[in-house]
Write a structure and sequence with these properties.
This protein is an all-alpha fold and about 180 residues long. It has helices at about 10-40, 40-70, 70-85, 90-105, 130-175. The radius of gyration is 23 Å and the shape is elongated.
């Protein structure tokens, strides 16, 4: 078995695995909700509700963490960009990463590195370290609004699952 060392550890790869795992958990939660509704099972609906509560709590915690550590996140992304610039001559993957930064952020390198990767730079391009900071400052509100929207949908799902669970219980008491 391969050990993860500090040298080979890549946080962006870990993020991909976390997203894949979260997608699998969401699929399982949706399965609980659908089966609980179709079979009129209080147990599955309660499981669906409990999973939504846990996911809601994790979402709130991640949102609070993100807003409290915004400056650290920006610094980490800027550091990753700077490391990619330094290693771009050694690796084509790093060169592609730097090119993506340049394209998405309409920026060209930074003040401390060479500008050899910016051969087709326009006059209105910015320093990439400044562009990264501007991007996070501009888009953080949008990320927050999307998170609030997802949380609202989750709250509606929790309300509906509890209403349906109570209706099933009341219907069985009548029979």
């Amino acid at each position: 078995m391969r050990e993860i060392s500090a040298i080979n550890f890549q946080p962006h790869i870990l993020a991909v695995y976390i997203l894949i795992g979260a997608g699998g958990i969401m699929m399982l939660v949706g399965f609980f909700g659908c089966c609980g509704t179709l079979k009129e099972s209080q147990c599955l609906l309660a499981s669906f509700f409990a999973c939504l509560i846990v996911i809601f709590g994790a979402e709130v915690a991640a949102g609070v963490f993100g807003f409290m550590n915004k400056e650290k996140i920006i610094d980490d992304v800027q550091k990753f960009y700077s490391e990619s610039i330094m290693e771009s001559s050694e690796s084509s993957n790093r060169t592609a990463i730097v090119a993506n930064y340049h394209t998405v952020l309409n920026c060209c390198s930074d003040s401390t590195s060479n500008l050899s990767l910016c051969t087709d730079a326009e006059d209105d391009t910015k320093d990439c370290l400044v562009a990264i900071m501007d991007f996070f400052n501009e888009k953080l509100n949008i990320i927050g609004y999307v998170g609030i929207g997802v949380a609202g949908v989750m709250i509606i799902g929790m309300i509906f699952s509890m209403v349906l669970c109570c209706a099933i219980r009341n219907n069985r008491e009548v029979i």
